[in-house]
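Each record in this resource describes a single protein on a pair of labelled lines. The shape at a given residue is found from the number at the same position. The record below illustrates this layout:

***
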Amino acid sequence: MSATIDSERYKHVVEIGAGDSMCSQALMLLKGADRVTLYEPNTILCADLKRVAIGRKTVTVVESAVDGTSGTAPLIHLGYASYLLGAPSFVKLSIENDGEKWLSPLVKEVKLVRMGEIDSGDIDHLILTNNGCEMAVLCGMKSRPGVIQTKHYIHNEAQGKQSGLVCNWLHEHGYRAQVKAVNRYQTHYHLMWSFQSKE
């Protein structure tokens, strides 16, 4: 039996790499969720999320990146394309090998939290748009969300391999996907994964 993707009410929706209020997918689920937690390390984007969350008791905004470790890490602030230095982001994979050095003025230390520390086992809808750190989140989960949303880029072979790792992990752990959206230039697409119970 599959989770009902569009009509089910969720207890806890978590979005990692939420962006701002214009692009956050979790904010679109507010009416159908008891609680929404948004993680966004980019200071400017996070400030917009915090503004929208004012007065909404069911929404929590955390200014940090989620990865496999805790502490701090350098984030390259590129708006929606921000990524942790060293992560297999589509931006990093799209520039020349030495191109990243020109982005150094955009680097700022941000807080890192480990998925295993923030997941208490109650996440039933997870949205991952965190530019290359998806595997650290998935492997650190305690929850078994009924629905997981992922975003995949099609810029080059290396990014394809990264997407393959994510898709293979989800498939091996009982999830089945359907395409949710493809952008107009066909350079990225969104998948909606539903957990298949054994019943």
Observations:
- Residues 13-195 form a domain with the Rossmann fold fold (CATH 3.40.50.150).
- The chain has a mean pLDDT of 89.
